[in-house]
Amino acid sequence: MIAAGRAGECGARVLLLEKNNRLGVKLLITGHGRCNITNKTGSPREMAEKFGRNGKFLISAFSRFGVKEVIGFFESRGVKTKVEKNNRVITESDRAEDVLDALIDYMEKSKVEVRSSAEVRSIERSGERIEKVVLSTDEEVLADRFVICTGGKSYPATGSTGDGFDWARALGHKVIRPSPSLTPVILKDAFVKELEGLSLRDVRIAAYKDNKKFDSNVGDAIFTAKGISGPLIINMSKRIGKELPGEVALKIDLVPALDFTELDARIRKDFEECPNKHIKNCLDMLLPQKLVPVITKIAGIDPEKKAHCVTKEERKTLVRLMKEFGVHVAGLPGFEKAVITAGGIELSEVDSKTMRSKLIDNLYFAGEVLDLDGPTGGYNLQVCWSTGYCAGEATAV
Question: Is a pLDDT exceeding 90 seen at residue 285?
Fold first, then answer.
């Protein structure tokens, strides 16, 4: 939509082919329906660094149409924004529909023709140029230039089924193997069902492979019916996935503000102040109530035991569990639960300034179909805005 609108704004005659029967199906579910449009993380270079070794490809696009320009673009079209935790930029209305409406209005003013329920079956080339696309209805569409903005394979129910990868391969492009990225984590532990819905704020989670730590970060997480999710886990999932299969475990520090000694002193103080209270009622001053029966069961301590009866060894066990609450990774879900797709069109075959293919003269790419994946928090939508804007502008030259 941003590529089509920009191309039309620059004077091109534009046709947008949409496989679904309506626009923006995937956009409407971003940010849990609130649309986390970007992230105010810093300069274009700092933003690009969030994408690892492939990030340098984005510096030009972020400099051309970056965070400031994206916020200005939407606010000038009536979509007010707000900045939340971790510099996430969200719609002030908490409505992704407002972002979609702004894009549709942009295209209308740019005189873009939109055709929905138009599924592309194949792309046909003549030499080093695309000649036409053929729809599933056998209708042929001819154009001077073509932009592939099909997304990846994540949330396939929204229409992202990897079509763009197949077309690119058929046209001679190399495609880095697509894989699910930014996913929840499925756990082996039976007690997880008891913790479903429990949110953890500002905890530290360390990941281990065969007892050797390979990642550690602080943030928010939430237990699900089958495992654990939330921004912290989703951002760690790609690294976790690289260590599978194998014995991968997570250790959750439930009270990172206190070290082992400080936490032990705090628990001892709490127990001394309520000596006749059941331990389950003393621990809820430090832990979410839902966690207390799980912690005490793992520790082998009767939750009805009075605080003054808890032994030093039992107290030390509680401290260790609060600082290193262990869960065991069973695996990661597939594309149906992935926020974004890792892998995609090989970047060395695409011009980073115009998004034009270096193999096919009149072909351009934008968005998730490229081999770019960043952390959760608005970074990946920023890629869509920036690359789409640059591609749309380049096709109109």
Answer: no
All residues at 6 or more sequence positions from 72 whose CB lies less than 8 Å from its CB, including other chains: none
Cβ proximity of 392 and 11 under 8 Å:
no
Beta strands 340-345 and 175-181 are antiparallel
What is the C-alpha to C-alpha distance for residues 170 and 155, in angstroms, rounded to an integer?
24
Task: Evaluate whether 61 touches 391 at the Cβ level (below 8 Å).
Answer: no
Distance CA 89, CA 67 (A): 9
Give the confidence band of 180 by pLDDT, cuts at 50, 70, 90. Answer: very high
pLDDT one-digit tens code per residue, 118-154: 999 999 999 999 999 999 999 999 999 999 999 999 9
Name the β-bridge partners of 223. Answer: 228
pTM of the model: 0.91
Backbone angles phi, psi at 378, to 5 degrees: 100, -10
Query: 238-281: per-residue pLDDT in tens?
Result: 999 999 999 999 999 999 999 999 999 999 999 999 999 999 99
The pLDDT value recorded for residue 397 is 82
Strands 113-115 and 212-223: unpaired
- Kindly state the percentage of the chain with pLDDT values over 70: 100
What does the pLDDT look like over 227-245, one tens digit per residue?
A: 999 999 999 999 999 999 9
Phi, psi of 134 (to 5 degrees): -115, 125
Task: Give the position of tokens 């096709």.
Answer: 395
Domains of the chain and CATH, by start: 2-181+339-395 (3.50.50.60), 185-251 (no CATH), 260-326 (1.10.8)
